[in-house]
Amino acid sequence: MSDALKSTARFDEFATVDWIDDAAKERRRLQGLWSHFGIQRATLSWVYLAYDSAVSWLVVLLVGILIGVNTALISIVTEWLSDSKQGVCSTGWWLNQKFCCWEEATESCAAWKTWDHVLVNGSSGFVRWLAFVALGTAMAALCAFLVRGYAPLAAGSGLGEIKAILGGFVISGFMGGWTLLMKSVGLALAVGSGLSVGKEGPAVHMGSLGTTAVTYTNVFTRADMGELLSYLLQECPSSSTGDGGWAGMCDQRNAGKIIVGLMVATVLRAIGTIVAYGCRVPCGIFVPSMAIGASFGRMLGTIAQQLHRTYPKWALFAQCAPDTPCITPATYAFLGAAAAMCGVTKVTVAVVVIMYELTGALNFIVPTMIVVMVARVIGDAIVEGGISEQLILLNGIPLLGEDEDECLLDMPVAAVMRPAEELLVLPAAGLSLRGLRRLLEGSAGVRGFPVVDSDMRLVGYVHRDAVAKAASSLAASDDAVVSFGASGGVSLGHLVNPSPTTVRPRTAAETVVEIFRKLGPQVILVASEEDGVLAGLLTRKDILRHTRSH
């Protein structure tokens, strides 16, 4: 299958929302409420009207509470799963390492038992490695099994699907409670495993086994990405004491080892993120991209720091004051995290704001803006669009982006529309109830029908669901004549929208794209300028099929 066909193969799974029709229904509903309750002065009537006005805010409040609780549970479970790969708390198996060693230093915590002490009652690096690999693989495999078997829509980050929904499409089952449950459980397992897993099925075991076997030996890849990011962004004291901070990053004697470890971690994290983000497991891209950039930035900062210590007289360090710290590796890690996130997502202003919120330091804003700008320019030179846009094309998700405007320049809508000869239309009069039901049975994939008169002049547009509901409830005989416009017979004219969004065949195609974006109609009908004869019909999917095939 060609790339163009792959990018449109799933279009039939997405239903289109008619924003104009929905807005009209909401206006009619509100008018009905006010006409029913507005005249009455009873207290109960005003209470109901106040409730109807506030119900949207109540829903937002409840959603915020539920999502906050769900996110907190995911964070707690994820941290416990991540720590459980390395050991267990002897005072309570449900406690992670942080809470198990709450009252004493983690390094000397007697309550936290590593797996070698639990399984063989002794110190064994091989047993610790084996337990780390086995538990991480089990988590990744269980995650892939749950998503593949019970909730395929929970796979991935969901950003592309959310963009499609905001763009006017409906994905059946994507917003359901079962998908939410599997997404939450799968996300905790995927993040807790800390692995870059392969495809579903047996490859999950092979990919996770290989990855964990390699990453265990590197402290920067063994740590949870959120935890790693917090350590990489920590500054070292002016005079290092003790073990030199986490993993010895602040000990100048370990500089060479730290540089090599960070370089290996950057490469492995990058490869692992590329593989894992395309798997059928719930996963995100923001923290992994920031962890990759922070690892690379910390490596460059450590290299620059060592160069300054070795060659303090270089012209490159002419602005550095003597006997004072000049190079701060944590700052390089911070800027690297910002650059990596921008390069992956192609987001600019939001990245600067997010990084400012992380530090609260105004003096970092200008350097952050510079690295974000450079990352964006280089990223755009390599590939257009961020990772979510690329996944939208890869997964065949319909979404009107900015590229459609360039493909439709100087093109009339007649070159993109489906011509009237290919459409199923309803006559305004003369169709029997039997013929109407037969037409409905043979048009399951059609969302609506143009209504035309005997000369194919456009009368209006009617939604299929409304016609099907009316046809199933009619008590008339099968030979009864159904009317959608003219008087006489069984009249269904009240279902017809007599003024659908209509353009002329010579209308610019990019103008139609703007109508879809800003007004959100389900379809746009094309009628001739002279006599109003139906010339064709256009949907968002028709535009995307045309642009993605050219």
Structure, explained:
Belongs to the chloride channel (TC 2.A.49) family. One of its GO terms (cellular component) is early endosome. This protein has 550 residues and is an alpha/beta fold. It folds into two domains: 124-394, Clc chloride channel (Orthogonal Bundle), CATH 1.10.3080; 403-548, Roll (CBS-domain), CATH 3.10.580. It has helices spanning 3-6, 19-37, 43-84, 97-100, 115-119, 125-150, 159-166, 177-193, 202-215, 219-222, 225-232, 255-277, 286-310, 329-345, 349-359, 365-382, 387-394, 403-407, 433-441, 464-473, 509-518, 540-548, and strands spanning 14-16, 87-89, 112-114, 169-171, 418-419, 426-427, 431-432, 448-452, 458-463, 481-483, 490-491, 502-503, 524-527, 534-538. Helix 11 (225-232) packs parallel to helix 13 (286-310) and helix 14 runs parallel beside helix 16. The radius of gyration is 31 Å and the shape is elongated. Residues 197-209 have low confidence and may be disordered.
Distinctive features:
single chain; 550 residues; alpha/beta; Clc chloride channel; CBS-domain; 2 domains; 4-stranded mixed β-sheet; 3-stranded mixed β-sheet; 22 helices; 14 strands; transmembrane helix; CBS_dom_sf; ion transport; transport
Short account of what is shown:
The protein has 550 residues and is of the alpha/beta class.
* Proportion in helices: 40-55%
Shape: elongated
CATH architecture of the largest domain: Orthogonal Bundle
Strand order of the largest sheet: 5-14-13-12
Tally of strands: 14
Overall pLDDT confidence: 81
What fold name stands as the CATH topology of the largest domain? Clc chloride channel
Distinct helical segment count: 22
Major pleated sheet = 4 strands, mixed
Which parts are unreliable, with pLDDT below 50 for 5 consecutive residues or more? Answer: 197-209
Report the structural category: alpha/beta
Oligomer: single chain
> How many distinct folded domains?
2
Main location: membrane
Subcellular location: Membrane
Keywords: CBS domain, Chloride, Ion transport, Membrane, Transmembrane, Transmembrane helix, Transport
Family: Belongs to the chloride channel (TC 2.A.49) family.
